[in-house]
Design goal:
Blueprint: H1 2-25, H2 28-33, H3 38-59, H4 62-90, H5 98-119, E1 121-128, E2 137-141, H6 153-164, E3 170-174, H7 184-195, E4 203-206, H8 224-233, E5 236-238, E6 242-246, E7 250-254, H9 266-270, E8 278-282, H10 289-293, E9 299-302, H11 316-319, E10 328-332, E11 335-339, E12 356-363
Parallel strand pairs: 1-12, 2-3, 3-4, 4-5, 7-8, 8-9, 9-11
Antiparallel strand pairs: 2-12, 6-7, 10-11
Helix pairs in contact: 1-3, 1-4, 3-4, 4-5, 6-7, 7-8
Length: 364
């Protein structure tokens, strides 16, 4: 699926370059500068686009450069359509080149706001009630740190100190702690930060779809074994289709990522657990709600969706049936489900319609 999106993205950029060449060449200042020669103005417009993409790629990354360009392209298309409607219905034409100028200004404000929402991290709170005897429990969790995208290891430690300030009893990490682009230095630094995290019951981690990487280990700065070694050396408990009973009060269950064919189904995973005790499940991808709602799970924590990341693709995962929920809280049968927008992002440094967060869940 992601390969198809990648190919479509490249095709959209290439088609967009051709479209924007004609739009930019129509700007009066460009046309006049090129002595009203159409071919020269088109060449100059192409040069402007290439320089823009290269500069944005240097300042951000090639992926983010494409994201910025596609936003300007989409905005230009919409404003051009509005201009045609205004001309046909109201007999009020837009000034020549206005769609490009308006799009660039609008996207600059829009994407700077989206960058701010992605780079900064907020605390999100939920309060849940259970009939099980658990007393009071404060759970902190975050997902999708994708170490190195919006903060390095030192930046991650600053976010951890904020989470620590909320005085949680336990810290859970349901996946995508690192990815293919994470450096060994950032991975090790982030693991050390987790090792210094202070809470009553410690830190627990379950795999996401990016943690093992999509490239062969020889192409990565570190292997899965390196990651496991650093996590365990810093007292992080890794739960891979496994569970642990804590303080004889509640269970933490970590599911393998849904991308792994060998992962256990939820009922097999929970069989043998004392269902009189509260059961918290970490499942990176929120796409097994029916089975989990029919199981003994009391609370399921997920990430993966990044809160929909960018408008207008926000709910594309749900519409395509890839996810059961994009963001927030839902209750099915007797099971509570929470999907976080993530504390960071994979590759793209913009969030619109959502923002980066860590989550505090009070259960009583």
């Amino acid at each position: 699926m992601w390969i198809a999106f990648f190919i479509l993205g490249i095709a959209a950029v290439l088609a967009g370059i051709v479209y924007m060449m004609f739009k930019i060449s129509g700007l009066p200042v460009i046309f006049k500068m090129c002595k009203r020669k159409r071919g020269l103005s088109l060449f100059f417009s192409l040069l402007i686009i290439i320089v823009f993409l290269v500069v944005m790629g240097y300042l951000t990354s090639p992926i983010n450069s494409a994201v910025i360009f596609l936003h300007i392209l989409l905005c230009t298309l919409i404003i051009s359509l509005i201009g045609r409607i205004m001309k046909a219905v109201l007999k009020i034409p837009l000034a020549k080149g206005a769609p490009v100028i308006i799009s660039v200004v609008f996207c600059a404000v829009y994407l700077l706001t989206a960058y701010y929402l992605c780079k900064n991290v907020w605390q999100k709170n939920y309060s849940l009630h259970t009939n099980k005897e658990i007393g009071t429990l404060r759970v902190a969790f975050f997902a999708d740190s994708h170490m190195g995208t919006t903060f390095d290891g030192a930046g991650f430690e600053k976010e951890l100190r904020k989470i620590e300030g909320a005085s949680p009893d336990i810290l859970l990490i349901p996946g995508d702690f690192v990815d293919d682009d994470t450096t060994r230095e950032d991975m090790e630094s982030a693991c050390r930060a987790l090792g210094s995290f202070k809470c009553k019951y410690g830190v627990y981690y379950a795999y996401g779809n990016h943690d093992r990487g999509y490239n062969p280990d020889s192409e990565k700065p570190f292997t899965e074994k390196d990651l496991v070694r650093e996590l365990e050396a810093n007292n992080v408990t890794i739960l891979k289709d496994d569970s642990v009973l804590i303080d004889d009060r509640f269970y933490i269950v970590g599911r393998e990522d849904a991308s792994r064919p060998s992962r256990a189904d939820i009922n097999t995973l929970l069989s043998g657990l004392d269902t009189n005790k509260y059961i918290i499940v970490m499942d990176h991808q929120p796409n097994d709600y029916d089975a989990e709602a029919s199981s003994a799970a009391d609370l399921v924590l997920s990430g993966h969706t990044h809160g929909g990341q960018l408008f207008p693709i926000t709910y594309l995962g749900e519409l395509m049936g890839a996810n059961d929920n994009t963001y927030g809280y839902e209750r099915h049968n007797n099971t509570d489900f929470i999907v976080t927008s993530g504390i960071s992002d994979w590759a793209v440094i913009f969030k619109s319609g959502t923002k980066s967060e860590y989550v505090i869940v009070d259960v009583e």
